Amino acid sequence: MAEETFDGNDRLCPYCGDKYHPESETYSEDSRVEACDGCGKIYRAYDSFSVTHYASFSVTHYATPDCGLNGEEHAWEAVALQGGRTHPFCTKCNMCMPHKLLAANVELRGGSDSERPVEPKAEQT
Q1: Contact (CB, 8 A) for 67 and 86
Q2: Contact criterion met (CB below 8 Å) for 119 and 106
Q3: Mean pLDDT across the chain, nearest whole number?
Q4: Which of 19, 111, 112 is nearest to 63 (CA)?
Q5: Quick check: 39 pLDDT over 90?
Q6: Which tens digits make up the pLDDT trace of 79-117?
Q7: 3-state secondary structure of 67
Q8: Which pTM was predicted?
Q9: Which residues contact 22 (CB under 8 A, 6 or more apart)?
Q10: Among 3, 4, 21, 91, which is disulfide-ready with 75 (CB 3.0 to 4.6 Å)?
Q11: DSSP 5-25
Q12: Nearest CA to 63 among 108, 125, 2, 1?
């Protein structure tokens, strides 16, 4: 499974680990889409800035995988959360299923500790 990467000097591809040093003019805390020169896969990238007592400045470069950006289907699987609840996460890119997709794709089976996604009921004709 591809996982989010972060580094203080280079951007690391979350798929193959290929790295490059971003130019300071491109630093942005906004999420954007980038493609890896090594493997060609697409991922979401952003930078995080911190300043300490006006004397120290650091940047951390993040790269987050996303199956959808590469034209692949997500492999949703229920993951146990705190409080006995579950929610679907992609086993390939670790993305959390957005709630707007959850309602359209699965229904939650009720019960205190037994809530889990189940396949939607087929429409009767």
Answers
A1: no
A2: yes
A3: 79
A4: 19
A5: yes
A6: 888 888 888 999 889 888 887 777 655 544 433 344 444
A7: helix
A8: 0.60
A9: 10, 11, 47, 61
A10: 91
A11: EEESS-EE-TTT--EE---GG
A12: 2
Q: In b/e form, how buried is each residue of 101-119, taking b as 16+ CB within 10 angstroms?
A: ebeeebebeeeeeebebee
Is 58:50 a contact under the CB 8 Å cutoff? yes
Q: Stretch 45-66: mean pLDDT, rounded?
A: 83
Alpha-carbon span 109 to 49, nearest angstrom: 42
Structure tokens belonging to residue 55: 């004397």
Reading the block at residue 75, the tokens are 């492999």
Residue 36 and residue 47: Cα distance in Å, rounded? 16
pLDDT at residue 43 tops 90: yes
d(CA 72, CA 93): 10
Q: Which two tokens stand for residue 61?
A: 């470069």
Report the distance separating Cα 51 and Cα 68, nearest Å.
34
Instruction: Decide if pLDDT at 67 tops 80.
Output: yes
Find the farthest-apart pair of alpha carbons in the chain and give their distance in angstroms, rounded. Answer: 69
